Amino acid sequence: METPLPRDLLSTSKAARLARCSVKQILRWVATGRLPALKRCGRYFVRRADVRRLFRETVPVRDRPAPLGTSEAQRRYEAACVRLRELGVFR
Questions:
Q1: 59 with 82: CB under 8 angstroms?
Q2: Confidence grade of residue 66 (pLDDT, cut at 50, 70, 90)
């Protein structure tokens, strides 16, 4: 019987929600080594602190998604801007 995972470990889907990005992006960061991960039973798990650190390093403060309470349209717009900047479409 396997021991339970520590509470600070997140699945890739929960990490994606925390970082407000896609699961694919989380897996890319894991594959490139930018985000340390633990693989268990074929699934990756990442530490909450590592996701927050990477998010702070990757997205400048002015480009971070708006805090909760902002309209859904505004959050989607901010997220789209962040993704486009990540892809190098505009700066």
A1: yes
A2: low
- Whether 34 and 14 map to the same domain: the answer is yes
Q: How many domains does the chain have?
A: 2
79 CB-near residues (< 8 Å, 6+ apart): 20, 65
Rounded to whole angstroms, how far apart are CA atoms 43 and 69?
33
20 with 50, same domain: the answer is yes
pLDDT band at 37 (very low <50, low <70, confident <90, very high): very high
In a domain, 1, yes or no: no
Q: Structure pTM?
A: 0.60
- Domain of 79, in residue numbers: 64-91
